[in-house]
Design brief:
Shape: globular
Order of helices and strands: EHEHEHEHHEHHEHEHEH
Bound molecules: 2-phosphoglycolic acid
Helix content: 25-40%
CATH class: Alpha Beta
Number of helices: 10
Distance between the termini: 21 Å
Radius of gyration: 17 Å
Oligomer: single chain
Strand order of the largest sheet: 1-2-3-4-5-6-7-8
Number of strands: 8
């Protein structure tokens, strides 16, 4: 698999309707065609509903399609869930699992691990999110929480390439904390993340997520392999600038 200098993932959450997602994808595709950034991998994660139309736009482009979640079973009586195989069929190559907004709805490490495993089994790349909450951070428990999340979520993973996204929950723009982490603080956690990854897993990259903006992304890009971006991925020019500055 080709290795990139930076991997920049847009997480559009539940923010864009189908028309908006397709328009934004088309705009980004044009911008990247005019000014190719060949050493950067760009991944767009629209809502499930918009994925089909976005997939059509991204055909024959360097931009990859991602999903914001997937279930761990292949098929069956699982109302409301989406299988990794059906996402693969659509042209999806990356799937976010264990985002803190899903963990806040009850997803636990074991479930996130099963989802990551299913993504790998379907030959896609899981973007596995971990991060401490504000309470955990303020209580001085961030390292302990990260170590637990990483080791438990990854414990049954096959030794295939995956991406770990460190997203301190309190630093996500919509968390309401009003706080952002300094790059130096985020970089400090890389060692704990690496030390907690099971020794059998050798092939991974670590990206950062949480209020990343065009003017801050560069602070992280020396130590992190890229970024998971929410708010700053919703406008073409802002996201394009962010990719360029990464
Ligand atoms: P943000 O979101 O960039 O708006 O903080 C990041 C994320 O939740 O993945």
């Amino acid at each position: 698999m080709k290795k990139y200098k930076q991997i920049i993932v847009a997480n559009w959450k539940m923010k864009l309707n189908v028309d908006e997602a397709t328009a934004l994808s088309a705009e980004l595709k044009d911008m990247l065609a005019k000014e190719p950034l060949a050493d950067k991998k760009v991944v767009l994660c629209p809502s499930f509903l918009a994925m089909h139309d976005v997939a059509n736009i991204l055909k024959n482009s360097e931009i990859s399609l991602g999903a914001q979640d997937a279930f761990y079973e292949e098929e069956g009586a699982f109302t409301g869930e989406v299988s990794p195989a059906s996402l693969k069929e659509l042209g999806c190559d990356y799937i976010i699992v264990g985002h803190s907004e899903r963990r806040a709805m009850g997803e636990v490490d074991e479930l996130v691990g099963k989802k990551a495993q299913a993504v790998l089994a379907n030959n896609m790349i899981p973007i596995i999110c971990v991060g401490e909450t504000l309470e955990e951070y303020e209580a001085g428990n961030a390292k302990e929480v990260l170590a637990r999340q990483v080791s438990k979520t990854l414990e049954n993973l096959d030794n295939k390439y995956f991406i770990l996204a460190y997203e301190p929950v309190w630093a996500i723009s919509t968390s309401g904390s009003g706080k952002t982490i300094t790059a130096a603080e985020a970089i400090e956690q890389i060692k704990i993340l690496k030390d907690s990854i099971p020794a059998s897993l050798k092939d991974f990259d670590i990206v950062y997520g949480g209020s990343v903006k065009p003017d801050t992304v560069g602070d992280f890009s020396k130590d992190f392999k890229g970024a998971l971006v929410g708010g700053a991925s919703l406008k073409a020019q802002t996201f394009f600038d962010l990719i360029k500055n990464s």
